[in-house]
Amino acid sequence: MEKVIVRYAPSPTGIPHIGNIRTALYNFLLAKSQKGKFILRIEDTDRKRFVPESVKAIEDSLKVLGLNWDEVYRQSERLSIYQRDLELLSKKGLAYEDSGAWRFKVEKGKKLEWTDLVHGQVEFTADVIEDFVVVKSDGYPTYHFASVVDDHELKISHVLRGDEWISSTPKHLLLYQAFCWNPPQFIHVPAILGPDKKKLSKREGARSVLEYIEDGYLPEALVNFLAFLGWSPKGDKELFTLDELTSEFSTERLNKNSPIFNLEKLNWFNKKYLAKYTPKNLLSQVRKFSKKAKSEEDERLAMIINLIRDRMTTLADFDKYSGIFFEKGEEPPPPKEKARQAKEAVEKIENWDEKTIEESLEKYIKESNLNPSDFKNTLRLAVFADNTPPIYQSLAVLDKSEVISRIEEAIKKAK
Ligand code: GLU
């Protein structure tokens, strides 16, 4: 079988959004699932629309998700190849000069068809195609020309791209025929739509992968989410690492219908991946998002993460739910008598660890004949003055001395 070689071919005209990166992901998965090659090709021949920063944004977006490419090319460095092939066309009488540009001569009446791996049989007639420019007057090739020449040069076996390129494919086929080259397989994947079934807007989610990362989404969650926007595996399993996606991926399971972007689903994936990590493995990720976490020691930070992560949706939520471990909340203190009792109970605890705290407070509740939930509420108000995760575990995060001084402060304030 022919080796699978694919390319992700972005035009560096801006910051790639998740729809573009989904195309890159599918290319990566197609290549890697077949032990093939994944090429990054920067299509920078439109000098007017070229945005230099976007090359780095493209590379960073791929890297952060682990979509490492095997080879990289820039079309602006390959002008001699396009020039050579333009001469070939013109020698065959299939290209002519017009106002300083070169046009391809379209033979009318031709039927152009291909079997698309997503859309099935697709047909066009050349009658609707004008003689199109292949090399512009500035000497740079057009997208159509450079793309076909490079796909041939780089031995691309499958062209997987967004379906907005379907109407360009007949032009590409004309070029393949003119050169007597075999075209690759075409796979046009439907665009991701917004909840209103229209083109996904920036507000609805068409943002860059890097922005999602900055918002506290995990790369694994983004990869999993993007993979499922237009593809599905065989069974019901939903959580797939990049490696698992690679073994599962096949073009047959790419969807014909446009997927709808759903932020709730991304949030769901992110929560799942937050839960999958051990708190220790989340330390450095959390520290990127929180000043407080930065100056916190590993062990205590891991305890906090462990207690609050099922409430967090993104890494950026750390500060929102961890506040009580750094500063008391706003709720009023419990009655003085009850607060005094809480202090006495805490003072009796001999070893300051979760297990001993629980055993010893439970014992105190029994011996003093207290209502357990009322006593826990007293502790909550006196120490945290806000909602908390399970109270005994929450107490264990603080030092004993801090718990006592927080209670003393409550006693002072209480009536
Ligand atoms: N440069 C085109 C883009 O920006 C590539 C289309 C293709 O993959 O052929 O999407």
From TrEMBL:
Keyword Ligase annotated: yes
Example of a GO cellular component annotation carried by this entry: cytoplasm
Single GO MF descriptor: ATP binding
Catalytic activity: tRNA(Glu) + L-glutamate + ATP = L-glutamyl-tRNA(Glu) + AMP + diphosphate
Entry EC no(s): 6.1.1.17
Domain Aminoacyl-tRNA synthetase class I anticodon-binding: 284-411
Domain called Glutamyl/glutaminyl-tRNA synthetase class Ib catalytic: residue spans: 3-98, 103-268
Alphabetically ordered keywords of this record: Aminoacyl-tRNA synthetase, ATP-binding, Cytoplasm, Ligase, Nucleotide-binding, Protein biosynthesis
Protein name: Glutamate--tRNA ligase
Organism: Candidatus Curtissbacteria bacterium RIFCSPHIGHO2_02_FULL_42_15
